[in-house]
Amino acid sequence: MSLTATPRSNRLHIVLLGKRNSGKSSLLNALTHQQAALVSDVAGTTTDPVYQAMEVHGLGPCVFIDTAGFDDEGELGALRVEKTQKVMQKADVALLVCRDEEVKDELHWLQLLKEKQIPTLLVLNKTDLLPHAETVADAISEKAGVRPLVASARTGEGVEEIREALIRMASETVQPAIVSHLVSEGDLVLLVMPQDIQAPKGRLILPQVQTLRELLDRKCMVMSCTTDKLADTLQALSRAPQLIITDSQVFRTVYEQKPAESLLTSFSVLFARQKGDIDYYLQGAASIARLGKDARILIAEACTHAPLSEDIGRVKLPRMLRKRLGEGIRIDIVSGADFPDDLTGYDLVIHCGACMFNRKHVMSRIESARRQGVPMTNYGVTIAWVNGILDKIVI
C-alpha cells in the first residue's frame, strides 16, 4: 500500500455471501465497475475469500470481500465455509445474495448476521434469468421477513439501488475518533515516539501517523521527540503541552518527567478505545491483580511482523508480567488471524492496539472473550496498570 492510500483497517468492510453460482463475483464487478473478481459459469470459482480494496463513489475507501459459496460440499468445501464464517468477524456490512426462492441456507446465514449485528442487504441476483423475478422476491420476502433488492449483475438492473443502500448503511457505520475527544483547536500536543529497533526504517508506524493526522485535522499544534529528548523538548517549549501521547513501553519514563498540568496517554490506549471496548479492557487490566502464579495468558498481535529483539509483545510485555506475577505463568502468543475460538483455558487475553484490524474485527474478538467469561485488555492499558499509573492517564 502506498503512503497516501487509506489503510485497510480504516476502510468499510463489505462481505458478499451466498450460494455457489449466485453471482456474488459478478455483482461485485458490477458495483465497482471493475473486473475486481474472477467470474465463471462454473459453480465454486471463488474458493478462498478475496479482498479487494478500492474507492467507490459515495462509499469512499472500502474493502469488498468475495467469499466461497456457503453451500460448498466435501471436506475441502467445509474448510472454505469455515473461512467464510471467519470473514464475518470483519464485516461492517453484508450483501447476502440469493439466486431463487429456495432460501433455507440464506435464512440460516441471515440469522447469523443478525446475531452478530451486521447490517445486511438481501439481494435477489440474476433476475435476467428469472421470468417472474418480482414473484420470487415476494416469496423470499415472506420467508425472510425482509424484501430483497432485485438486481441483475449482467444487465445492471438494480445495481445502482444496491449501491445507494450501501451508502446509507455506510453512513451509519462510524468509527470512533482516535484522539479528538481529548483535544481542542489550538492545543499543544507532544508526541513521544522512541525510534528504536522496532521502528520501521525511514517511516513512522501506522498509529503514530493516524494520530498525527487527526491532531492536524483538529488544528492542534503538534511537537514530537524521542524519549531521550523529552526533557530538552519540554524545556524548549514556552508552555506545557495540554496532552502528551507516548509509546506505551516508555509510559513510566514519560510519566515521571511530564509537567503536572499535562495530560498523559499512549497510542495503544487511544487505539484500545477507538477499536475496542475500553471499559472491558479496564476491567481486564484490573483482573491481573487476581491472577495466580500459574496463570495462563494469551497475547494476541494483529500484525504478523518478524519478531525482533526486545519486541513489545513477545519480550517486554511477558517480562513485565513475569516480574509482577512470577516466572511460573504460562504465556501463549498468536498473531494475525490465528486467534483461538476456545479461550476457556486462559485467565486473561491481552491484545495489541490492533491498528491493522478494523473495529468490527476487534469487537468480534472481545465478544468471544466476553461470551466465554475471559477477561481481555490491551498492551497499553496493561502496561499502564503494571506501572501503577492507569488511574493517572486519560483514555
Topology:
Blueprint: E1 12-18, H1 24-32, E2 50-56, E3 60-66, H2 74-87, E4 93-98, H3 104-115, E5 120-124, H4 133-144, E6 149-150, H5 159-171, E7 188-192, H6 206-217, E8 221-225, H7 230-236, E9 243-246, H8 251-257, E10 263-266, H9 267-275, H10 278-286, E11 296-301, H11 312-325, E12 330-335, E13 348-351, H12 359-371, E14 376-378, H13 379-386
Parallel strand pairs: 1-3, 1-4, 4-5, 5-6, 7-8, 7-9, 9-10, 11-12, 11-13, 13-14
Antiparallel strand pairs: 2-3
Give a description of the structure:
- By secondary structure, the chain is α/β, with parallel strands linked by helices.
- The protein has three domains: 8-171, P-loop containing nucleotide triphosphate hydrolases (Rossmann fold, 3-Layer(aba) Sandwich), CATH 3.40.50.300; 180-269, Rossmann fold; 278-392, Rossmann fold.
- The chain is built from 13 helices and 14 strands.
- The chain has helices at 24-32, 74-87, 104-115, 133-144, 159-171, 206-217, 230-236, 251-257, 267-275, 278-286, 312-325, 359-371, 379-386, and strands spanning 12-18, 50-56, 60-66, 93-98, 120-124, 149-150, 188-192, 221-225, 243-246, 263-266, 296-301, 330-335, 348-351, 376-378.
- Strands 2-3-1-4-5-6 form a six-stranded mixed β-sheet, sandwiched between helices. Strands 8-7-9-10 form a four-stranded parallel β-sheet, sandwiched between helices. Strands 12-11-13-14 form a four-stranded parallel β-sheet, sandwiched between helices.
- The longest helix has 14 residues, at 74-87.
- The chain is globular.
